[in-house]
Amino acid sequence: MSTIDGVGAVIAELQRFADQATSNPKLDEMEAAVRELWRRHRADEMRRTLRAALEASGAKLPAADFDAIACGRVDAEDRSLTAARLFLESDLNFLVLAGDFGVGKSFGTLAAIAELYVKPRVRQWAADVEAKIALGGFDLSKSPAENLALVAPPDATARVMPLSFAWWLGSALSSTWEPWREERARGAKQGNRSVPVLVVDDLASEPESDRETAALEALVEHRLTRKTIFTTNASAAVLRGRYGLRAGDRIGHLGRRVYIEGPSRRRGSAW
Ligand SMILES: Nc1ncnc2c1ncn2[C@@H]1O[C@H](COP(=O)(O)OP(=O)(O)OP(=O)(O)O)[C@@H](O)[C@H]1O
Ligand SMILES: [Mg+2]
Question: What is the mean pLDDT of residues 174-185?
Fold first, then answer.
């Protein structure tokens, strides 16, 4: 079929929807019901979609943190969040977000990613839902809720997230990365190290291994043209001692290390 035929078919289909909508009062009623349902639940649906997308990132954060970010209960002035946001808006490729525990490195990173990458997609998804509602074409044998579900792709979340948090091992793994075979066999998750934004949360908290220097070098090599955030409690000296100079040299050339000092934002200590 030529492109012209394709466009013609789409126009004919749209016309069919329009004709049905004007000629069938039951379809008008259904459209009104679906529209009302969406209007009432739109905000909840968007939060739920955002929440699911954040969780699908694989970030190892407490459930309450996903809720807080999805509901906008976020301190937008926070230094970790600001550092992550500025980095994501910059031309830099690497950020080492170092600092004391609990200063908001992981939370701020995910909140910045939510703001800049995920929310726009959720908004686009909502606009798509609305466009589809406007086009009608509902199934009268189904309820308004079922019709709305038909309109809203159930796996919208899977397509919302262009990035993944990756557990250190996961991020360093590739199908051909033999040194990590044992860990994989023990169930270490394989991350996708080609995502547009990769977060390696808690660098240097993984068990020490004689392969980690090579693994980090390989990862950095792979990420030279993309954005990567490392969060870590380790000092520059510890990172140097543990991963050698080569990876740090490349990261420093294409990025920055930011140190966030301060008290933990967590509520309290058990001891
Ligand atoms: N910008 C923020 N707005 C609201 N709450 C925040 C913010 N940043 C952090 N918090 C709160 O502080 C807690 C600790 O933050 P987070 O887990 O990001 O710390 P961290 O720096 O990654 O710590 P660690 O080094 O121990 O991994 C979060 O669970 C969250 O409740
Ligand atoms: Mg953390």
Answer: 56
> Is the minimum distance from the CB of 232 to ligand 1 under 6 angstroms?
no
Closest by alpha carbon to 171, among 243, 114, 223? 223
Q: Which atom of ligand 1 is nearest to the CA of 78?
A: 1
Nearest CA owner, ligand 1 atom 11 = 265
CATH architecture of the domain formed by 7-260: 3-Layer(aba) Sandwich (3.40)
Instruction: Give the span between the Cα atoms of 68 and 79, in whole angstroms.
Output: 17
Q: CB 165: neighbour CB atoms within 10 A?
A: 27
Can you give the pLDDT at residue 188? 59
Question: Strands 164-166 and 197-203: what pairing?
Answer: parallel
DSSP state of 75: -
98-134 pLDDT per residue, tens: 999 999 999 999 999 999 988 888 888 888 888 888 8
Per-domain residue ranges for the chain? 7-260
